[in-house]
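Technical note accompanying the year-one report. For the benefit of new consortium partners, we illustrate the data format agreed upon in the data management plan: each record pairs a sequence with a structure-token string. No post-processing was applied to the example shown here.
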Amino acid sequence: MDPLDIARWQFGITTVYHFLLVPLTLGLGPIIVLFQTLYLRTGNERYLRMTKFWGKLFLVNFILGVATGIVQEFQFGMAWSEYSRFVGDVFGAPLAMEGLLAFFVESTFLGLWIFGWSRLPKRIHLATLYAAVIGSWLSAYFIIVANSWMQHPVGVELVHGRPQMVDIWAVMTNNTALAAFSHTLVGSLSVAGAFLLGISWYHLWRRRHDGIDTIGEDKRVVVGSAPDIRGRDAADHGVWIRSLRIGAVVAIVGFGLVAVTGDLQGKLMFQQQPMKMAAAEAACQTGTSFSVLSIGDVGSRDCKNVVGLIEIPGVLSFLANGDFNTTVTGVKDLLPQYEAKYGTTVPDNAALYGAAAGTKVQYVPIMAVTYWAFRLMILFGGLAAFASIVALWLTRRGTVPRSKWIMRLALLGILSPFAASATGWVFTELGRQPFVVAPNPTPGGIDGVFMFTAAAVSPGTTSGELLFSLISLGVVYLALLVVEVALLVKYVRGGVVSAMPELGDHDDHDDHDDASRDVLAFAY
């Protein structure tokens, strides 16, 4: 096997897995901030329970996210040393800011929040959570700045064949980064909203199934209590119904904002990566029509027999430029432009390009991937939003139906925005190929600041070494996945009591702030 192919599989698998954890952390953080703020303002114990339960799951996901994220940095040196040399003068600043500033703030204040219950004044304690969440968002921003520079290099000049940063402000305010960051954040809110909805539905269903909550003659919920079961009191119902409805609203709003920020990204893509735009729509011919469904050999790079079965005139123009008559250049017309500007073959340098040296450059990404990943991203996101609307309607009387199948669908629905997020990143990264650093064709772009993926892999690594690394990391990540799922399932099934074991231990609940009985004070 080609070392390049193995290295790409390794980075793709570990990165997509890591990014499954990232949006849940980014989305849950501000929701927990909301819950604790409401607790501070109202003194209502329901919000305390919501803060601690969802905070428990947030912490589990955060810790596993850190563990899986560390590997990403090591991969740059292990398998992508030539890439690291090329981008090192640019990436040094944002990645240093992420590690030394954002992550330091995030982890420090999160630690204060974990151990600060009843030890810090309530307002100070809440402020530590605000700081931790802001730190996580800053951390994501610096990472996205680095990734967006690969999509649209700015703020550099070419010195001895390598880009050197000359304008850090241009790098940090790259319009690609601003659009990607906003898109990532609102997508993360959709993920967190579906997470709240599915888990809350499960607990409301359990209360119905166990006969704790019933339906009265007016078709509204009659909230009950189970004194013999720890934590299954009337307040427990309030935790889940409020969490469910807040989660549904967050998911709906998040999807709406995803559409807005995604539209902005599409317009930037039209300017900065026209081949990716064309491949996303299987637009083999220059025109204005958006393909709802294309048939033929969509996986072919030369657009053989690709025909738009269902097309909407003008929509592609709107996605690209905000009007209905802009002509979007198709794959067949773009290809000679790319070949004329960047060459038809990989430079004949075996030391740098290995087996790829002298081979024909495939400027057209695999359209089967870009075409369907783009549509699946929209489909999964739309399903999550639609399910949230249905959930708001079905819970309008204060509880959920007793149907076990609907409960299972609600739990399964948690995966929908995760799938949208993963397919979105697959589209973003694979659509950029064959470049690991895409050229900047916009006015002011610096000629020569691009890098073929074939040149990015470490020249000294062998297929065997990379295969061993891929298998080893795969086993480790599989083990971490088992740990992640097992912990989440354990604490979800345990309900609020899993985060507040003092509930139900005695009749007097006034001392629930006692730090010695706070699970968050000793479990982490």
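Partners are asked to follow this layout when depositing records. Residues 3-42 form the longest helix (40 residues).
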